[in-house]
Amino acid sequence: MTITKKWPLDAVLFDLDGTLVDTAPDFILCVNALCRQHGIEPPDAMVFRTQVSHGASAMIQTAFNITPEDDRLPGLITEFLALYENNICVESKLFDGFDELLTQLDEHGIVWGIITNKPRRFAAPLVEALKLNSACLICPDDVEQRKPHPESMDLACTQLSLTATNCLYVGDHRRDIEAGKAANMYTAAAAFGYVDPSDPAGEWRADFYASTPASLQTILNTHFDVTLT
Questions:
Q1: Minimal CA–CA distance to 106: which of 72, 78, 134, 66?
Q2: What DSSP string runs through 158-204?
Q3: Residues with catalytic function
Q4: What is the mean pLDDT of each run of 10 residues along the chain (229 residues)?
Q5: Residues contacting 188, CB < 8 A, separation 6+
């Protein structure tokens, strides 16, 4: 009989945009409004979604078909973020399956938290609006170096008194996996998120590959010393 050893698990930590929460609809709402203000056609929604995890600059470059050197970029980003700040949680919601998974984690006493590169001025209102009872919310405002540097991960472990080697970090961008690995956490690629086709999740060398939020429960039950039902 083969006995498969399961790893201890103290916490599951998540990226925010494109991993835990589908925020793209509100970014699309805002960029469409911005494009109309500037008299141009809004971008294709599916193409735009793949840029959300790259940040505001990438989203604006995609929408306006401009380069990082374009003099208009800083002003457009400012306009875009002002629109977003007033529309943070109009259509944003948890990805399907996360309501159940987070409830399961709570019921089994497994800590879960959020580590994001989204500035706190946007992240905190979003978390509050969605009533997410996360054990921590680590934002770039809290550290000197954001992901892919592991400082955010280390801070989460310090705040929660956790051992990194007993944590799983889930993210939809290569930098999430790099940050998790650098902090000695297990990592799972959220392939259902805002993955850029030019950098497919299967090439990030994550420990696990989650095609759906529901598949995370299977990963946890199969490889970790937990039983979520």
A1: 134
A2: HHHT--GGGEEEEESSHHHHHHHHHTT-EEEEETTS---TTS-GGGS
A3: 15, 17
A4: 72 98 97 96 93 93 96 97 97 96 94 98 98 97 97 98 97 98 98 94 97 94 91
A5: 168, 169, 170, 171, 206, 207, 208, 209, 210, 216, 219
